[in-house]
Known about the structure:
alpha+beta
Amino acid sequence: xxxxxxxxxxxxxxxxxxxxxxxxxxxxxxxxxxxxxxxxxxxxxxxxxxxxxxxxxxxxxxxxxxxxxxxxxxxxxxxxxxxxxxxxxxxxxxxxxxxxxxxxxxxxxxxxxxxxxxxxxxxxxxxxxxxxxxxxxxxxxxxxxxxxxxxxxxxxxxxxxxxxxxxxxxxxxxxxxxxxxxxxxxxxxxxxxxxxxxxxxxxxxxxxxxxxxxxxxxxxxxxxxxxxxxxxxxxxxxxxxxxxxxxxxxxxxxxxxxxxxxxxxxxxxxxxxxxxxxxxxxxxxxxxxxxxxx
Length: 294
């Protein structure tokens, strides 16, 4: 049961990954004016990731695609994976969504597939960004999750408005209530309690999403993914040509410290990935290449 749905979801996440990798390399190629324009265009290095169960058997894997030192992107990772096996007690406690699922202790099998993206840019005027979408299945329950959020170190209201408006336009066909609900969800999830502030300017986010209609929920998840490039790429094209100074760069590095704190302390996906034995380099690819604390 659910084999066809698993295959369909996994193939979609891989297709979205391919589209984003191509679009990001195109942004690198087209950057011929402004800071870093005289550098070589960046390219993704692709590595297969593999996961093994405790007994050494195959437990899935995926592709880790990382670009470093590009014209536009200082570091960007686009990972896609499909993993499966059984969840130990620590992994169950680290689950990003449901806990205490009836029957899980007796039959702890799971399957999960998704795409995860984090981009840190060269120019401080170009915002950092995060996106992920995923499907999780157990014999006892299934659900979708994911979203995207913008993390500028130098904020522009027009950029924030564009990012949110594009996401709203993609969610509204699924019901007018989706965007405000997922926006509020993102504001709550991407909040850093010990700093008493948000990680960025928000976006959309959902977890443990299951209406019981798999096709409808998958369609919503697809449109969350489809919204990403039209929401983010125009901001890159507009801001990558702007000049910046040392003060701007310092602001960027300090903001990256904030991003690293969140991902290491609060992010449930990071905790789950490490607890389930996934490649730590793939799990931690979200961390910036350089950051600063003051």
